[in-house]
Every structure is written in C-alpha cells, then in structure tokens.
Amino acid sequence: MKRLFYILPLLFLLSFPRVACATEARMESVEVATDPVMNLSFIVREAFKPDMEEAIKSGIPTSFTFYVELYRVRGMWFDKPVATWEFKHAVKYDNLKQEYIIALEEGAAGEIRTKDFEEMKRLMVTGKNITFVPTPFLRPGTEYYLRLMAELDTVKLPFLLRHMLFFVKYWDFETDWHSVKFVR
Fold first, then answer.
1. Is residue 16, in this structure, part of any structural domain at all?
2. Which of 17, 19, 96, 153 is least enclosed, having the fewest CB within 10 Å?
3. Does residue 134 register a pLDDT over 70?
4. How much is the average pLDDT of 74-93?
5. Pairwise CA distance, residues 143 & 75, whole Å
C-alpha cells in the first residue's frame, strides 16, 4: 500500500512531460526611444505552443494582453509611477476565407488580414514603434524605467467545450516583467 503512494505521484508527473518541460515565454529585444515621442518595440519569444497553434487554426480566438508601466526613478525614495497602459493583440481564423484576422489595439494598425500562419504569429508577438507618451511630459535629464509584461488571455469556452478541450488551460502564460532604464 505504501508503494502505491509513491507510484501515483510519479505516474501523474510522467503523464504531463510537455507541461513540466515547456520553455517559458519571455520578453526580448525591448527598446525605448524618447525623441520626439516615446516609442516602444518588443518581441515575445516562445509564446506559441503546438496545441495552441492547432486551436487557432481551427478557429478558436486567442489574444495577448500587454501591460506597460512607466516609473520615474527617485533616489532614496520609492519610484514614482508616471503612467500605465494596456493593449491587446487578438487573432481569429476565418475558415471560409482561409485567413487570419489580427486585431491590434495600439496605434492606427487596426485589423490586418493574412493567409500566412508565420506572419500571423509574428504580428501577434511583435510591437514596433508603439507611441505612448509625448516626450514633453517627461522631465529632461531625469531617469525613468519602463516595465513590460505579456499575458495570454484565457480562452472563454462554453461549459461543455471546457471539459472536452481541457488542454486549453495549459496555454495560459504570463511573461516576467522586463525593465528598461532610460534618461530623457
């Protein structure tokens, strides 16, 4: 009977090897430019898992939410929050037209349609020159830092589908906060 208590947890862990050994999603190539306005560029690596790719191809909508926080560094005191932003990248596959519809909330990008799966993935995890704060609001010669995080939004499925597509909960991810310091 004691052996059963040791074997059951081991069998449980071995039944989910992909979840246990999965690579973590992470923010990379985060760049901030402040002249003439504040722009942000970034890439999220390891965001798409094979099961998630198949679900997108079958028409399940998926979205990434990006959180941005700007702080002013204050020497011997707590850093002062200056501003926060939140924006989404969402994708849905149109089976009739066989194309991906990508909605980008930031800027004037709006809705982009493509038939190329790799282009869709690139658009979903990349931000290029996203304008946030007009530079006049930032004090010249002052040190700031910007924090950025990405999160895969939980897919909202009807009750019966939640039990049939139980693997959807394994898609959830949240990157660590990535910080970039800069001086205006």
1. no
2. 96
3. no
4. 89
5. 10
